Amino acid sequence: MAAGRDEAGGPGQKNQGAAGQAPSFPRVDEPGLSSQEVTRRQADGRVNVTEEGSSRSLWQIIRTNVFTLFNAIILGAMVVVLLTGQWKDAVFGLVIIINTGIGIATELKAKSTLDRLSILVASDYYVHREGADLPVAHDAIVMDDLLWIRSGDQVPADVSIVRSYGLELDESMLTGESRTVRKGEGDQAYSGSTAVSGMALTRVTAVGARSYAAKLTAKAKVYKKVHSDLNDGINTILKVMTVVVVPLCILLIFTQMRSVGGFHEALADGSWRQAVVSAVAGVVGMIPEGLVLLTSLNFALAAIRLARKNTLVQQMESVETLARVDALNLDKTGTITDGGIVFDDLIPIRPDSPAPVSDRTLTAPGDLSGGGRSGGGDPEGGALEQALVDVCAEGDPNATGRAILQGLAGTRPSDLVLARLPFSSARKWSAIVHKGGRAWYFGAPEILMAPQSGRHPRVEQEVERLADGGHRVLMLASLDLPTGTRVDDGWFTEHGTLPGDLEPLALIACSEHIREDAAPTLAWFREQGVRCRVISGDNPATVAAIAGKVGLTGEAKPRSMDARRLPEDIGELSKVLEDVDVLGRVLPDQKKAIVQALHLSGHTVAMTGDGVNDSLALKEADLGIAMGNAAPATKAVAQLVLIDSKFSHLPDVVARGRQVMANMERVAGLFLVKTVYSALISLGVVLSGIPFPYLPRHITYIGALTIGMPAFFLALAPNTRRYEPGFLRRVVAFALPGGIATALAVLAAAWSLPSLMGWRVALAGDLEALRSVCAIVLFFMGVMVLARVASPLRSWRGVLVLVFAAAGVIGALIPFVADFFAISLPEGRALGLTGAFVLLGAVLMILAGLLLPALTGRAVSKRPPSVPDGRQPAA
Asked: Which domains does the chain have, with CATH numbers?
């Protein structure tokens, strides 16, 4: 609540005042633990500390990244080559070290972030020790402490209620039920629940690992792999290749042994080494090792870039979810508005006059006359102000109550309150009973007047007029209790329902401060094809007015709806939501249902929030986004936290996810071409019994210049295309034409060159010449595939292709490079035949691109599966 009570004591506010003074608390009869008792409990380990960090130890992270299927395949091939003594052909194994290092570093960064999670969400608590109320950290709470639980606190340990001052808890983190639970003396409250209103003095009954807090924190820290279409696709390729590689490797070794004269001669003269190396060349080419490396690298770069934007992502795979988002549900307070509330006016209602409720024109938030005080010569004005102060001080814990108390400066809460019912977001009203026998109710006008709908039409019109102007409107109403009514602090426990004969006495107009970054941020999402909806617990007309001011739907007027009219059936709800931009009076369980309904319509949903009532929806959404100043429970369930609570970071977050995923899909097609042609060439070698047409070092050189290094630059290019599932299907369809054409061109050269040139492949010199020609054909086919992936070539992409094509040619002319990678340029007739086979490959690539769709009955993409740049909005 916004203000403490006077010297007599009463519930204090959660946040400290401007001067930093501690909040005031009611008097406590018992002194609490002494310093010696606290010290003994600390020595015994009865402290609210859990020793576990994140759910993964350093050894688990290393083991997971080292012992992978990919590493096993590449390491096995590298060991085999090293056993032959041909170390130059084993350089492909360096990718294991690089990829594993990036994976370990990325997960260690995630572990560090997760270990800091409890620090990010921790806040100070107040305990009563030695007769004084002292602030302590979460970890300093000990067993048997007298602990104050205030509105907004996440209960840090299991406690028993000693005395309740209207405490209501949200136990949805424990039970899944969004209904708030009122707690009284002797009741238990478990860690992980959150105080949504009131306060209480409690006694700690369980701390540390024995409490629910430890279990909830452990759940929040669990390193659970997010489903990734990209990783699933890569793993599928690796699994298929594993099934293919083992028998094909055996067949290749057998074939290569025969090509050098058989096992007996190969073992006798040592030519078995060359046969094994040739077999490995086929195996290594089929594994998209660069794709695995580039994926790890891109996720790591995304993490670094997002961290620079004060955005915390628990798992890098979440960027894929960011890329797919097409529906963004925004919580108004804390996202569009900054949570700041200004009390504008107290407007007495004149029930006996035919004139309007108020003769004052209220135009825009923050531009109202009255100086924050009302009543004037109205004899009821002072009483209304006093009643409003009392009900706010006793029951309303949110920013509205604080703003009202600040607006009515100089008026102090009275000591005449006999009973109180604190405000809750689910109920949307609060109440007190004065000693004079009058009950005062304060809350949403449509809620307070619901039992007597239609009896006060002018009041309803005034509420609508104020709300349409973007004001937050509340009502003060009263009820005279029968003479002799016995009232105590638990009166509302028995009389907590809303009476049907309340007398409306005043309207309270407040306004919210809109974030400066809200309008441009929403404009960006509109341009990118992301449908934004505002989901709020406030009056729908008020929310719609604010949404209109920030351009939620551009120049069109936002379509609003009261959530109380929403259908309960999820299917019907999904249809209704297609025509709604703003929802008001939304309950916590409805926010969750809204996310479920959007899922039913096929949307990928992101949800922002900062309150406890948003936690269920954040858990249900594909991507839960919490503000840095959000409630601890909200940040605990969110996948992404905007540390500085700036809504303007979201476009960069979404754009970064789209860039990574769209570009990774683009370059994945490039890597998969190598897998296709390597498998087909290996199969052709097995069937025809010829020597393998190139060495492992050839594929390392060619792959680096036509796939690996260009892919890195392409993966960093701007790209805002919204990602959609189906990664593997699209990249396979793209890779087949280039892979088939490349394999046929290389096999044609390997099959025909010996007869055309009179080479005897049994001779080392002729075999080396044949492999050099085949490697050159393979290189230029790789350049053509690269040009296809990088298209259109009118921009820097064309320069990129030319640079790496030139690098390959120049490298072959440098003696050291040519010697290391065993490349020799052909001369004379061999040079002409090499050009002919390259031309043949180009023709085959065109034909494969044209004929393959007709043969397979599917639309095989003629272009890369991603939009080439970031200028095009999502479809």
From this structure: 35-52+123-221 (2.70.150.10), 288-305+658-856 (1.20.1110.10), 312-336+515-645 (3.40.50.1000), 346-511 (3.40.1110.10)
